[in-house]
Amino acid sequence: MGLFAQAYKITYQRSYNDKVTPNEDPLLVFTNAEQTVITSEKATQSSARYPYETFFVDRKQPSAYYRLTNFSADNELATLDSAILNRNTLALTDETKKILGYTCKKATTSVNSNSIEIWYTNDLKVKGAPNELGQNLGLVLEYVRNGNSKITATKLEKIPHIPSNVAFRQFGKTVDALTYQDEVWKSRFIRIPVFQNEQINFSDQAKSDSILRFASGTVILKKVKIPKLDKGSQAFVQLIEKSNGDAYDRTGSVFLIAEDQAQSFLDGMQKGMQTLPLYSNGDGENYPGMARTEGFSPIYELMRFFTPFGVSHFNDRLTLKGKTWQDSVIYRQDISDFLRVMDGKEVYIGTYIGNYDKGGHHVSVELTIHPGNSKTDYPNVMSVFNTTNVMEMGGQPYARFFREEKGLEVSFVLPNDAENVQLRYITTGHGGWGNGDEFVPKENSIYLDGTLAFRFTPWRTDCGSYRLYNPVSGNFQNGLSSSDLSRSNWCPGTITTPTYINLGDLKSGKHTIRVQIPQGEPEGSSFSFWNVSGALMY
């Protein structure tokens, strides 16, 4: 560094609608003729929360812009990303104003449809900015986005030199910009892999020692460790699916086994489904493992999804002009509702796809948990019913009992008075071909303690939006594809999102939920059925 290079330290504050952001870590810029460093007050004091990022401009080179992230005290990663400095064209104007006593000129640009104003001064003969924009114009003292979000210099100090613990230096590990961006992004949340390119198919041949397989290979299960989490965190489940030989649209479910009572769904998977409590409503059939009882809890359904018609495996079977089939389906859903039953525990996560094909499907499943700022704790959650027969090949029949007026009736016990109780309800209708409940709207009615709580008709009319995920969907003479057709709350290649039903404040003790759906009559060998799952949140 030049012996007489004058250095400056500039302190900035963030504001929105002219209200200063409270409890912020002040943004700092250190600059002289040879380098600029963008950091924060806590980072210079080694008290910033990991991971944190620092930016360097080496002005001895032509616009060399480095990004450095510290993941921990002894783990860092850097990249040279100079292209970012020239990514946006700046328009210079004649408008001026005073900031901290210095005359500043205005430049403008647009970033991702956001209008940007940059106020910079040339009075100090140095360059710098609180971000990458305007680094080579002069010293930027204010950055304004959309007229209301600001980064404004509040203090400018002459200093003898840029402190050694802040100044530019050689970095331990440097990678390309794309790798750097990916590693930094992933470091900001918890990633919990569950399944990686696992096969779900109709076969009794085990494929992996680390994965439990049930129901002739149509269900896979794994125990995963969830770390202790901060309050206010958010959790997501992501599943990537490709056909490996099965051409049909199939029901799928990602689920968590409830282990809050003496008997769990895993017991039935291992010992036989008939060992679980049986539900019967007078239709002459017994349905194991679907309804809560004293001593048993059904599974928590994290995500209901439906495979499309043969995505990936059958992409070369039909070529359409101007259309390109998707390579896979990515399903992603917020499952923060279930964090209380996962937080700091080892839990069983499973995935089911009902199919009869030896090739079946390939799936990858991952949980991601993202830190939050809220101090609100997670809600209590109780699994009440789940009629999706994930153990179809293991002796769990289709839920056809809605043909009886009683439908599904389940009792549960609240240990304490509960406020703002909600039922997280997922429902999809199936079967019966053209006149069955898959293609005929049917009203769902939910009763609490004998009183109607909610009534609606679940129906999807947007299935045609997912045509490019369905390469071998059946095509009709009228120009429609089977995947275009509206259905009872699902489409091939989509998630069915939960409906949240407000049950109000409930007293401790026993309560009863009844789900009533006017299920259609069988037609020959075809029949209708309904997959419904319900979990209480309070």
From TrEMBL:
Residues 191-369 form the Peptide-N-glycosidase F N-terminal domain. SUPFAM superfamilies: PHM/PNGase F. It holds the Pfam family N-glycanase_N. The keyword Zinc-finger does not apply. InterPro entries: Cu2_ascorb_mOase-like_C (IPR014784), PHM/PNGase_F_dom_sf (IPR008977), PngaseF_C (IPR015197), PngaseF_N (IPR015196), PngaseF_N_sf (IPR043022). Keywords: Disulfide bond. This is Peptide-N-glycosidase F N-terminal domain-containing protein.
